[in-house]
Amino acid sequence: MTFPALLTQTAWLFLLAIPIACIAWTVTHEEVFRELHEWCVAKSKTSRHLYQRKFFYLFTCEYCFSHYVTIFFLILTRYKLLLNDWRGYVIAGFALVGVANLYMSVFAHLRLEIKHERVEIEKEEKAVKKNP
User: Is 52:75 a contact under the CB 8 Å cutoff?
Assistant: First the structure.
């Protein structure tokens, strides 16, 4: 494999992981899918059969769901990493899941820091209002 080809594959890896992370995070955490998320959480806890509980759990966990989003993107783009046969799909799949989950971890950490800063600002504003 040539260096330019490896560079192109690496760029695809880090770029393709962005929409995977966005979709997985949005479906499992954001308000727009809250009702679906709550329903899936309830079904994952109360369904009668194990396979039903596991199926619904997939929509509540960003890590689990990112595997299925990755499979969709692998089919859509036919992206392979390092090897040009089926093994390239397997390597690409796990690499994409890994990078996408890295992105989601960074995003979750940033959201937590931003929320913490907002709480601190609110405390300071209340303190200023009490003691002008």
Answer: no
Is the confidence at residue 130, as pLDDT, over 90? Answer: no
Whether residue 132 has pLDDT greater than 80? no
CA angle centred on 127, ends 124 and 131, rounded to 5°: 140
Instruction: Compute and round to an integer the Cα radius of gyration of the chain.
Output: 20
In 3-state terms, what secondary structure has residue 49?
coil
Can you give the pLDDT at residue 67?
A: 95
In sign, the C-alpha dihedral spanning 59, 25, 16, 91 is negative
pLDDT of residue 123: 84
Q: Is residue 132 part of a domain?
A: no
Classify residue 112: in a domain, yes or no.
no
